[in-house]
Amino acid sequence: MTRKYIIEIFQSLVVMLRGLYFSKYCFKGVSKSKTKVRVLANGPSLNQFLEDNKGNSNLNDFDYIVMNYMPMHEDFELYKPKFLCLADPMFFQFSHRIDEVRKLFKVLNSIVHWEMIIVIPHNRIKEFQNFNYIHNPNLKVKPINSYTYAGLAKFRNSAYNLNFSMPGIYTVANLAIFTAINMNYKYIEVYGIDHNFFDSMFVTDDNVLCNRMKHFYSNEVSLMPILRNDNGKNYKIADYTQSISNMFKSHDLLSSYAAFKNIEILNCSKDSMVDSYKKR
User: Fold this and answer.
1) What angle do CA 38, 72, 219 make, to 5 degrees?
2) What is the rounded CA–CA span in Å between residue 280 and residue 277?
3) Nearest-CA neighbor of 39 among 275, 273, 264?
4) Closest-CA residue to 253 (of 179, 151, 163, 180)
5) Which of 142, 173, 214, 235 has its CA 20 to 30 A from that of 81?
6) Is 189 in contact with 61 (CB distance < 8 Å)?
7) What is the pTM of this model?
8) Terminal CA-to-CA distance of the chain, rounded, Å?
9) What was the pLDDT predicted at 212?
10) Which is more confident, 218 or 95?
């Protein structure tokens, strides 16, 4: 038995012990009546899906999981999502996007007339309780154990299934897909995970790493410096590409976990860079 393997077994035991406490943050008590779900992410390709499904009478065949600012889209009420996933620090603390976040909270208070669950990482629950001003009785906040583990598959997938841990949340889409899997949907379609970061990334003459940002909910293209979440400073390209690599790795872990639970995931995003799931 190699030293590396012994270390991984020890780490697995730590995950199990620590996860036993945090496993209280899970989907226990959340019910569903459908076996199919669609995850609607933030990539520009989602626009085509939304356009194609205007007036579609078969939308009710699926449950829906959305994220971030989707509630501000004009078609949001057509889908009546069951889950809204939030993971970005801007939803839990003051940032330069505070006005947008306040508008989101206002929309959630005013238009959600069906039961919807807001899924957040468990380590953000106190911040979210203090930061948001959501008072709509149709909205319930569900913190999920976000203690991460990416070790041995034989331990890893069981730990995910027991809510002891999860893959890292490097994009809110990771959280949304994990939500779909742990809610035991047997068929998952994912839209809007374009993840074509490398197409829009560039470095200015002042050595500032930037992205040409465009989301489905806006036609505007903005040039945004890529800032770290932990200290607000500019990313160096080596650190940023490592973070992107971690995000893609998280998709790989989610794909492995879905296979462990005999769940089919189909990536329906046009020109997506994600190669973890079968593509339509």
Assistant:
1) 90
2) 10
3) 264
4) 151
5) 214
6) no
7) 0.89
8) 42
9) 74
10) 95
